Amino acid sequence: MKGTSTEPGIAEETAHAAGPGPITAEHRELLDQVLDKWSLLILDRLCERPRRFNELRRAIPVVTQKSLTAALRRLERNGMVERVVVSSRPVAVEYRIAPLGKTLQGLIEALLRWSTDNMADVERARARFDGERDGEV
Question: 22: cis peptide before it, omega within 30°?
Fold first, then answer.
């Protein structure tokens, strides 16, 4: 079988073991849009439950209306979020996590857990770096 070794100590080579490949412009664009300042918070809140626009604004009080609108549009365009018109009086719009967006839930939770677990180390590294920079002036 091509790419597979039967010799002891030699790992079997597979496409998966080789990694995802190079980071292309398309990868960077998608990751920038999914991991931007507001998208992680929006996705995290929508994984909890569907929300109307103003509910999202209250759940993320530091986001502006313009930034929230832009982030929701990017997430909807990328298939992460669904915009659903709710038939009520007055007509309302609800945002829901799409099946594709739901696949990010574990990754988002892992990133948040990592940041919580490592925040003290990051703060120490920042203080050390800033202290070294202040000494260069």
Answer: no
Q: Which helix (H) or strand (E) holds 93?
A: strand 92-97
Question: Comparing C-alpha atoms, which of 55, 23, 53, 60 is closest to residue 38?
Answer: 60
Residue whose tokens read 């960077």: 28
Residue 117 near residue 106 (C-beta atoms within 8 A): no
User: How far is Cα 19 from Cα 6, in angstroms, rounded to an integer?
Assistant: 21
Q: How far is CA 106 from CA 43, 59, 114, 132, in A?
A: 11, 20, 12, 37
Name residue, tokens 């930034």. 67
* pLDDT per residue as tens digits for the range 56-107: 999 999 999 999 999 999 999 999 999 999 887 888 899 999 999 999 999 9
Buried b (16+ CB within 10 A) or exposed e, 71-93: bbebbeebebbbeeeeeeeeeee
Query: In whole angstroms, what is the distance from residue 58 CA to residue 42 CA?
Result: 11
- Determine whether 9 is exposed, middle or buried from the number of CB atoms within 10 Å of its CB (0-12, 13-18, 19+): exposed
Q: Which amino acid is at 69?
A: T
Question: Contact at 8 Å (CB) between 74 and 34?
Answer: no
